[in-house]
Amino acid sequence: LRMSDAQRVATFCDDPGVGRNLAQTPLPYLTSAAEGWIMITHARAPLGRDFVYAVDLPGEGLIGVIGAHKRGDDGYEMGYWLGRPYWGQGFATEAASTFAVEAGKLGELRAGHFVDNPASGRVLTKVGFAYTGETKPLFSLGRGESVPCKRMRYAPTRAREVGERDAALMH
Predict the structure, then answer these.
(1) DSSP-derived secondary structure letter, 69
(2) CA 128, CA 20: separation in Å to the nearest integer?
């Protein structure tokens, strides 16, 4: 991430369709908030606990962000978002697939999505995450309340087996 990305981060995260599906993003989301977040991300990078990257599209620049954060002894929590103009084009799956393989090398990798955002669950399943069976409340700054969140764990072999089974059942 670069400071020059702050305006695009703010524009995309200020969209309620994006901001409401993130746990730590307030609405409204101002450029100054994006600048502060980028500075914090840079300051924390040397600690080796946070790995946050811009998702860039050639000719467009930043279209989203993907990252993983150390969560105590429970491994890493992966999260991502894309600006609304880039939804439904495979960019989330492409970015998450590449990132999960690398982040999975750090240790246990987890993720989650709000129950009312099944599209994010589909992306995570495609790239190798499997549901743990847990649904826990997670506070969303953008919504100002706790929202049920379905929990997932990176298990590429298990997800591939389930996908193959489901494909066989459909034929």
Answers:
(1) E
(2) 24
pLDDT in tens, 6-62: 999 999 999 999 999 999 999 999 999 999 999 999 999 999 999 999 999 999 999
Peptide bond before residue 156 is cis, with ω within 30 degrees of 0: no
Element (H, E) at 56: strand 50-57
Which region holds residue 92: left if phi is over 0, alpha if psi is between -120 and 50, else beta? alpha
Neighbours of 109 (CB within 10 A): 24
CA 23/CA 2 separation, integer angstroms: 22
Q: pLDDT tens digit string along 55-114?
A: 999 999 999 999 999 988 779 999 999 999 999 999 999 999 999 999 988 889 999 999
